[in-house]
Amino acid sequence: MNKTVEKQELLDKIVEAIQDVKGEDVMIFDLSNIENSVAETFVICSGNSNTQVAALAGSVEKKVRNELKERPWHVEGTENAMWVLVDYVSVVVHIFQKQVREYYDIEELWGDAVITKIENEF
Predict the structure, then answer these.
(1) pLDDT of residue 5
(2) What is the number of structural domains in the chain?
(3) Range(s) of the domain holding residue 85
(4) Which Gene Ontology BP annotations are present (predicted)?
């Protein structure tokens, strides 16, 4: 990640991009104190359809690229848009369809994380 882009700034842009497309149940998981975690931070949100999930992922990529000049290291899941992962290395964004999120229950899986719930702005 570009040193000039602070992680908090990246998190703020990701959350703004999610809120722009009305993503729901937005949570930030701080995994920095968890041994062997795959990233420092997860941002997790839900959409109501594959169209909204794809739009959420597109919004995150576009806002971060346009405002912070950062591109994700890796993106996967866009083919069916049930669960899209946008990986910025230190921050990984998980965008789920609601039923898929319930099925995988990531909140339970990373229960040791410090979790911040972002209130909906709409």
Answers:
(1) 66
(2) 1
(3) 7-111
(4) cytosolic ribosome assembly; negative regulation of ribosome biogenesis; negative regulation of translation
Best CA proximity match to 46, nearest among 58, 57, 36, 35? 57
CA distance 24 to 73: 24
Q: What angle do CA 24, 118, 107 make, to 5 degrees?
A: 75
CA 67/CA 41 separation, integer angstroms: 20
The DSSP output letter for 60 is H
- Angle 50-68/7-20 helices, nearest 10 degrees? 140
User: What single-letter DSSP state applies at residue 25?
Assistant: E
Give bridge partners of residue 25 from the DSSP assignment: none
Confidence of residue 43 (pLDDT cuts 50, 70, 90): very high
Report the alpha-carbon angle 95-7-34, nearest 5. 75
Determine if the pTM surpasses 0.90: yes
